[in-house]
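Internal QA ticket QA-208
Title: Verify multi-chain structure generation after dependency bump
Assignee: T.L.

Test input:
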Amino acid sequence: MNLSAPNRDIVLRALLLVLVYLVLAWWVPNFRTPSGLAALLDAAVLTGLVAIGVGLTMIAGEMDLSVGSMAAIAGVLAIQFISAGVPLLPALLAVVLTAAIVGAIQGLLIHLLNINSLIFTIGTLIGFRGLALMLAHESTQTLPIDKLSIADSVSGHFGVLSPLSVTLVLAFLAVGFFASRTVWGREIYAIGGGRTEARSAGVSLRRPLVIAFSCSAGMAALGGALLSIRSGGATPLGYNSVLLDAVAACLIGGIALRGGRGGLAGIFVGLLTLRVVVSGVASLGAPFWAQTLASGLLLILVITGESISRTIMRRRHWHRTATAQG
Amino acid sequence: MLRMAQVSKHYGSSVALDAVDFSVERGEVMALLGENGAGKSTLVKVLAGLEQPDSGTIEIEDRAVDLRSRSQARAAGIAYVAQELSILDHMSVAENVFLGDTSFGWLRRPSMLAKKAAPFLDLVGLGSIDPLKSAGSLSIAERQLVEIARLLSRSARIAILDEPTAALSDAETARVENVVMTLAAKGCSVIYVTHRLGEVFRLSQRVTILRNGRNFPAFPTRNIDVDGLIERMLGRRLDQMFPPRRAGEGDVVMSLRGCSTPGVRLPVSLEVRRGEILGFAGQLGSGAGAMIQAIAGARPLTAGTMTLEGCSYAPRSVRKAIRSGVAYCSDDRKRDGIFLGRPILENLSAPALERVTRFGLIDPRRERNLANGVAERFEIDRRRFGSAARTLSGGNQQKVALGKWIGTDPKVLLVEEPTRGVDVGARAEIYRHLRTLADQGLAVIFASSDTQEVHGLADRVATFYHGRLVRLGNTDAISLEDVTRDVTDADQGAAA
Amino acid sequence: MESARPPGDRVRVIRYAAALVTLAATLIVAGFTTPAFVTYDNFLAIVRAASITGIVAVGMSFVTISGNFFALSAGQMAAFLGILFAVATVAGLGVPAAILLTIATAILAGILQGMVINVIGNPIITTIAFGAVFGGLAAFMSGNTLIRVHDDAALAALRFGTARPLGIPTQSWAFFALALLSWFAIRTTRVGRLITLSGASPAAAAASGLPVGLSSVIAMVIFSCGPAIVAIFSVAQFSLAKADQFSGLDIDAIASVLVGGVALRGGQGSPVQAALGALLIAVLQNFMLLRGLTAGERMTIVGLVVVIAVAGFHLAQGRRR
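Actual output:
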C-alpha cells in the first residue's frame, strides 16, 4: 500500500486507537455496549470541542492557554442566561459569539504585538478566570428547578449518540472542512508551517491568527456552556484540566508542536484514543489519579516515539536537502 | 516599463545604493551583475517592497509608484523570487505554487489545485511531479523551480529572479533559461541577478553592473565580452586593502585526501601549512562552503580522510572539532557567531569558558585578561565590553565572531565569508587580523564568494565551481581574472 | 558606527528596573492610601505569601533563562514530593534522611524531565505530561487521603517549619537565601553562564562548543529543588500533606517570572527579577485584599498586570520575537 505520508500517519494513529480500544474492550464489558460507547463519546465532548480550537492554534504555530478559563466563563454565562429565561439556542449562540469575539481580539493583539502567544495567553488565562469568578459572584451557579427541563433536553440519547456528541461530530466536520478545503483554513497551516516563508510568499498573518484564536475561544465556550447546561450548574473555578486533556488529544492525534502539520481527523482519533484509555482505566475501578497518570504516560510515550522516529527520518533526509547549498 | 532614477539607500553609515539609475524595457531581460556588497540585493529588495529607498523615484509605465510594502509591489505587478526559498515543507507542491494567492475563490479542492498548478509546473520542467505530493520531499533544486512556477502563476509585468540557478544542474538551468525567454517573449520584463556570466550572454539583452553602490550605464550584452564584464565588476580597489602575502614555509598542519561531502561532487585533496592562509573561491552552491563545513565537522564526510598534525582527524561534530583545535566561523554570523543579546565580554570568553573558570566559578580577572588579549589583537574597543553585541557594527561583530576563538589556542581557523555584511573600511582591518593570526602560527582556511578577497588575502587559492575543485595553487601564479573565470563558468557559453 | 547609548543595553536596564520601580511605586501608593498596609504584621503577611511562589519562581527562572520557557510541573511535583516527605517521615525514616530523600527524588525528576525535553524539543508539553504523572503518583502514594505526621519526635524535628528567627518565618529566610544564591549562581558560576548563553542563542552556544543539552538538564534540576523545598516546608508547617495541595503554583510562579521581566526568549535576566515579581504580585494581592476586592476582581487584575507587563517588555525590546 503506497500511502502519502500524512495519510500513513493517520492510519497508524487509527490503528493505535483500534488496538487500545480492543485491549480495553476485552477488560471492560461496558465498552462493548451501545450505552457504554455513548458514555464514552459523551465524556469526550468537552475535551473534544476544546481540542478543536486549541488544535487550530497549534497548527498556526501558537497555543491558546486560556481555553479552560474561557470554558468556565461560558458555563457561568450560559447558566445565568437560561436562568434569566433565555431559550437554549439563543443563549448558546450569545455565549459562543461573545467568546468568539473575545478570542478574535486576542488573536488580533497577538498579531499586532508580534508576541508569543504562550506568554500572552498565560495572562488572559488568569484574567479570564478572575472574570469568571466576578461574573459568578464567587459562587456556583445552578439552574432553577423550572429550567431543569432544558438540562434534560441536552442529555438525551438515541443509540450511541446524544445532542452533545452530535454537536461534537458536527463541529469536527465543519472545522475540518474549513481547515483543509478553504483558503483561510490553508492560511492557518501556512503560517504554522513556516512563519517567515509564509510572510515572504505574501500570506496574510493577521487573518489566520484572528480566526484561529477566535475559534479556540468559541469552541471552548461551546464546550463549557453545553456541559454546564447538561449538569445544571457551573462553577467559576471549573474546567481546570481541560487544557491539558485537549493538548494531549491533539498531540496524540498528530498535531505537531511547531505547527503546520496534522489535521482535525487526527485530533478526533487522538481524542478517542485518550478517552478510551482514561475511561477504560476508570471503569476498571482504578482511582481518579490513575486516570491522570495514564493520560500523562500515554502522552509521553506517543511524543517520545514520534520524535525518535522523526530523528531517524531526518538523518536520512539530511543528504538530500543539504546537498547543493555551499 | 520600469525606470528607477537616482535611488539611494544607506544603512547607518554604509551606503548601499548611491544615486542609482536603473531601467528595464518591456519584454527585455536585463542582467544585473556585481560583486557581493555591490548593492544588487538592496536594489532588488527596494523593487520588491522589502526596503524603502531614502531618495529617488520609481516609475512603472511612466507612472510613479510607491513600493512601500510587499503587497504594494505585488499590486504594481512585480514578482520576486528571492535567494532564500520560501517553500512550506508540509503543504503540497500545488499549494506552494499558489501560496499567498487568494484571487481564485475560497474553496480549495486538492484536485482543482493540482489541475491549476499543472501548466506552471510543466513550464519549469516539473511536469512529472505529483502536484499533491508534499513539498518537503523535493530537492533544493526542485524547490527553486516551484518558486519560479509561483512567479509564473502571478502573471507579473516585472519579474525579478535573484540567483535562480545557484542550486541547479545544467539541465535544470537550461529549463529556467527557457522560462525566462518565454516570459520575456510574453512581454514581461525580467531582471536577472546572477554570477554566472554564461547565462548573461545567453539570456540578456542588456547588462547593468553595480559596483560599490553605483551603477554603470546599462549597455547591450552583444557589445561586451567576458573580460569586459569582469573588468567592470571588479574595478580597482585600494592597494592597501590586503596585507602582503607570505610564502607558506611552515609544517603541514592539515591534509585532506580524496574528501567529498554532500555538495562536493569530485573528491578534494589538499594541504594547509602553519602560517598559511588558504582561500576557497566559489559562489553559492560551488562546494567551497561545503568543504569548509566538512573540515569543521558540521557536515559529514562521505569519502576520504583528513589528518591534523599528522594524526587522523575525523570530527563527528563541531564540538569534537573544537576540542581538536579546529575553530569554525560559519557564514551566518548573527545566528552562530555571536550572542547578540549578551555583553561583548561574554561573547569573547564563550568558547574558552573552561580556561577562565576555577572551581566552577568564573574568574572575572582571567576572563577580562582573555578578552583584553583578543581586543588588543583585533582592535575591539575595550570600553564596550559591557554592551550587548547587538550594538556593534557589522564589522565589529565579525571581529568578535572571529577573535573569540583565539582564547582556545586553535591550530586551524575556518571561516566562511569573513567579511559578509562588513563595510569596506572594516574589511581591511579584518584582513590584517587574519594575516596576523596566520603569522603567529595558525593555519587559516576561508571560503568566500568575493573573488577579489580571495585573491588579495590568500597565499594559496583553491577555486570551486559546481561542486568540484577547479584549480589549486599559489596565488602569485594565478591572476584575479583567472579566479573569477573559474568560479563563474565564464568559459562555457560566452557568446562573444 | 555605534550609537552613544546602545539601545540593546537600555532594554536590559528597563527589564531590571521595571519590576523594582513598579514594586516601589505600588508600595508607595498602597502606603499612602491604606493605613492598614503599613504595619509590620502586614509586611510579614506579604513576605509569607510571596515566599512559596517566590521559591518556585526563582527556580523556574533558570528554566526560562535557559531558553526552555516554563516548567508546568511545579504544582504537581510539590504535591508529590510533599507526600513523599510525609510518608517517609511517618515511616520512621527520620526527618533529615527524609529531607535528603525528597531532594534526591526532586533532582532525579529534574534530570528525567531535562533529558526528555532534549529528545522531544518542547519543554511545555514535556512538563505538562510529567506534571500529570507526578499528580497521579501523588494521589497514588497518598491513597487520596491526608497524610498526617503524629510522631512526637518527628514533630519536634519539624519545628523548623514554624520557627521565626528575628520574627520572620524560616520559609521566608529560605526565599531570600535562595534568591541571593541563585543570583550569585547565574552571574558567577560557569554553569550559570552556560545556561544563559544556551538560552541566548542555542546555535551560537553549540558553535562555541558549549553543551546546550546539558544546560537544559541542569536548569530543570535547579528548578526541581524549588517544589521540593516548598513541599518540605509545607509539611513542616502543617504536619500534613495532601495530593491536591499546590494546584495554582505553576501559574503563580510563571506570572512572577514574567512580571519580573525575565524574557521568554531566554538568555537574559536573573532569578532576582523573578523574586521581585513574586513580591510585586504579593504586594498587589495584599493591597487589593485590604481594599476589599473580591477574589475574582483580584485575579482579573493580576491577569491584566501580567498581560501589560509582558506586552510592555515586548514593546520595549522592539517587538522582536
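Spot checks passed. The mean pLDDT of chain B is 87.
Status: verified.
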